[in-house]
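Hallway conversation turned thread

IA: we were arguing at lunch whether anyone had actually written out TgaE end to end. Turns out nobody had. So, for the record, here is the sequence (357 residues) and right after it the structure tokens. Reply here if something looks off.
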Amino acid sequence: MHVGMGVIFQAEDEGRTDGDVYRNELRLADLAEPLGFDSIWGVEHHFTGHTVCPDVLQYLSYLAGRTRRIQLGSMVVVLPWHQPMRVAEQAVMLDHLSDGRFLFGIGRGLGRVEFEGFGVRQEDSREIFAEAAQMILQGLERGYCEFDGKFVKQVRRELRPRPFKSFRGRTYAAAVSPESSAILAKLGIGMLIMPQKPWDVVAAELGEYRRIFREVNGVEAPPPVVAGWVLCDEDAARARRHAVEHIGGYWSSLVRHYELVGDHLAKMRGYESYRTLQQMMSAPGGIDMMTEFFVNLQSFGTPEQCYEKIMDIKRRSGAGAFVGVFSYAGMPYDVAERSLRLFASKVMPRIKAQAPA
């Protein structure tokens, strides 16, 4: 089983400058290859301290020059916020810089603050994503981009440098709603899952995605990539304290950034699947209940407990890869590094032994 590491540059601790965050997160990123991780991933967010990595492909290009073998994953490039021809060029360039190590993750976005900041109508995001993804993915295979859609218009232009190699089998997208899952299946790309819903709901949506993928593409869907928040400690009680504080803190940051308390998503075309979540979050005690639920979905505890949790995720989702995030929500960097090193030495070898990458 493939094991990756995510670095997200979260900067909501008032005692840290953004410079502090970058110095320390990059220091942790430099450990990924020597510790034996198969891949390292970054995220894209804008305008708040939820994460301060506005250009994930620039970040991965930096890592391409600092590493030799580890794969480099975007989690994700949010297509509605970008000119799609530029994304195709950047993807090809990064693939050349890294000697073909790029894992291309894409998504459509959720944060109102980000859509408004870029002047993009959020209700159009699903259609923009579908058109942009189709144009980019076709272009990466044939070496030129051309498209005439409702939102994406592109006259034929060559991609230079030309694509390093095919992106088939190494392109993924984040999907939370069933409608988005169907789009991914029709595009023929893999699914990137971040635990935030009951696993029986995820399993049902995966089943429908796999059915559509099989019908459209004539082959089975690739195993999903699952990303999760990790806290590994030899002391189970201490691990739980850190998990409650910091994984819970990450969830609180996510709630603020995405404005999950309220009803704007429930009223927005294309985001109807968030209605139940916003209703639960807005109910008395809803925030505390959902925080506890999110924390318990993640992998924390002793090395044995972390291993069992990730194996449970594999059983429930059929995941072929797990990506752990080790630093978040103002966690002291010595705690994050200790957790990372312990996971790499005592958990990761057992996970890798489960199945071929």
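OS: looked through it. The radius of gyration is 19 Å.
IA: good, adding that to the notes. The longest helix spans residues 236-258.
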